[in-house]
Amino acid sequence: MRLKSVIELFVDEDAGSGQLEVEDLVNEFGWSPADPPDDLIMLRKLAYLPSYDVYSLRISLRNHGIDIEDNNALKLSKTKTSQLNEYMTDFTRPLIMQIYGDDEVDVQNFEDVIKLFRDPDVKKAIAKIQVMSQKLGINPEDIPKFMEDYGDIFLSLSYYRDCLDSIEPIITEFLDAMNELKGNYQFKTDQNLMNTIKMIEATINEHMAAVTGRFENFERGTKYMWDNISAERFHKVEQLITGYHTSIGGVLCALSVKMEAWARLFPNKDAGGPGRRSEFIMSEMKQGIENIEKMEDAGPMLAALGN
Questions:
Q1: How far is CA 1 from its chain centroid?
Q2: Is residue 212 domain-shared with residue 277, that is, in the same domain?
């Protein structure tokens, strides 16, 4: 809740979650600080990661020199992937129009797109694939692999967009609750509380607007990418989007943790009360919220997408 990574030693429905900070493991297990075991060295690295979603981890673990032999562990499940079809359709529509134009093709998900490239039975599509291979500077038989890479990049955007959409209703309810608290006769003269609420509101609104704006830029930039596609242009888009995985993942993770904690304690507008809510704001909600700013600053310059 305070946006600080901890080690969970146990979790139980009745007993709750038993957590320790990484450095406290030294005393818990009798480790020597002068000669720390490999586990502690790795945990120290993991504790500083901004998010633990698969896309952030791919980059963060590599940057920390932590090898993952089985990359399948860093992919979305088939169930989650199928849930993202609606989002993927938005990102793949420019591609389908580029290849098939107005031809009617049965595309329900991105796997169907891959199948069309692996077995293109439309003469017009074959001709367009030839043109695409020339633009990309790759052999026609390498197009399916290219498209799988394309799909993975935009699957990541679909995943993050899904995360954003899932917390937006909770954020709306939270901000409504803050307005009620600011108007409460008992607490509106509490300057410390009022300032804290304003700071939290500003942080949430600013970063939600930033993340939403990035998605809009991604969608706009990738749409025009196909107007003048080249291998260089695609890889520029690819590098930019993957460069934002850790910052977008970190911001969405932080906001999700905060909002879900609020929703658990106050599942509806009548749950708790002004006193309990104000106490939670001061004791938990404001703790660590400054870390969101650091995550946001970690992203590359978005202007590169327009080039």
A1: 18
A2: yes
Spatial contact of 215 and 164, defined as CB atoms under 8 Å apart: yes
> Residues 222, 301: one domain?
yes
Spatial separation of the C-alpha atoms in residues 265 and 223, rounded to whole Å: 42
* Judgement on whether residues 166 and 228 belong to the same structural domain of the protein: yes
pLDDT at 174 over 50: yes
Query: 157-187: string of b/e by CB count within 10 Å (b at 16+)?
Result: bbbbbebbeebeebbebbeebbeebeebeeb
Average pLDDT over residues 50-70: 82
The C-alpha atoms of residue 271 and residue 274 are separated, in whole angstroms, by 10
Distances (CA, A) of 12 to 9, 142, 262: 10, 50, 20
- Residue 198 shares a structural domain with residue 63: no
What does the block give as tokens for 138?
């790759």
Tell me which residue range forms the domain holding 137. 79-142
Examine the domain organization and report whether 43 and 96 are in the same domain.
Answer: no
The CB density around residue 52, as the number of other CB atoms within 10 Å, is: 13
What's the CA dihedral at 106, 109, 111, 116 to 10 degrees?
30
The three-point CA angle 71-74-76 to 5° equals: 125
Q: Is the pLDDT of residue 142 over 90?
A: no
Q: What residues contact residue 43 under an 8 Å CB cut-off, 6+ apart?
A: 7, 22, 25
Q: How confident is the model at residue 307 (pLDDT cuts 50, 70, 90)?
A: very low
Task: With respect to residue 50, please indicate whether it lies within any of the assigned structural domains.
Answer: yes
Q: How far apart are CA 255 and CA 168, in angstroms?
A: 10
- Give residue-wise pLDDT tens across range 238-260: 888 888 888 899 899 999 999 99
Tell me how far apart the alpha carbons of residues 213 and 205 are, in angstroms, rounded to a whole number. Answer: 12
Q: Are 45 and 64 in contact (CB under 8 A)?
A: yes
